[in-house]
Amino acid sequence: MRFGPTVCMIALIMLMCAASIGEATVSNIEVSNMTSQSFVVTWMSSGFERGTIRYGTSPTSVTIPVNDVRERDQVPGFYPDSTQTHYIVPIELQPNAQYYFYVTSGGTDYYSDSGALFELATAPLSENVPVGDMVFGDVLDSNFYPVYDAIILFHFERNGMESTEMSTYLSGLSDHPSTYQLFTGAFAYYKDTSSFYTLIPDQDRIVMRAFGGDRGATGIEANVIDHYEVGHIGYINIDLSLGSHENDLDGDGAIGRGDVELIIGHIMNISSLTAQQQDRADLDNNGTINIADLIGYVNMM
User: Which CATH architecture has domain 31-125?
Assistant: First the structure.
């Protein structure tokens, strides 16, 4: 019996994924809200799991653990083992100092693309912290339902992507029911953190990305209005369905290996897709997740 190329590809992918079926994968590890005494680490996981980091001032002493800020602050309704969005904030750091860290998500350690520790330097100490501007709005999914605990990442850039003038990344989380409020102020530096970023109306753009786990992901760009008159940058609603592939399962906005692993795990009864994930994964609309749906996902990769 001869097998077609799609069936052979399925078998190969299943062999490649065998060691990790049922395990979550992570994506979009980012550093944001850099200050002289703190920074933020965010990422997405395809599964629902606890996230932490360990950091230190030397590659040989990365030993200080930090849990999710929502766990630290005992936010009502937040369960550390049941989230796909991870938001970690080391505090009380030294200004203008080198730090190293790695991410632990669901018991698995993650490093940079090169396999080394993540590395960064805190901003220098400054006595002239500017008054913050504000961006605010709501985060909604494809059904216009509010999304709680979505990660919002953004930065400012001047005169388009070719400009060398760009701010560091800033971030926040959507609160109940879905509202977010993001302040610039002490967080918006030029990319080299040499000084605070100064917004110039009609020249700057705000570039935003939002991640809501299996609720979707998107990207938004908008001009910065005259914030000196209105006191804030503006009200921007974020529709997570705009930038996501409609069949994305792991929340990274695209179809890839993470989605295929989730389907294989579900078919083999190693893990279970959520009701919303099953609705997205049911490509043949027969009410079950089967090999035909898996083949469809492989063809979309």
Answer: Sandwich (2.60)
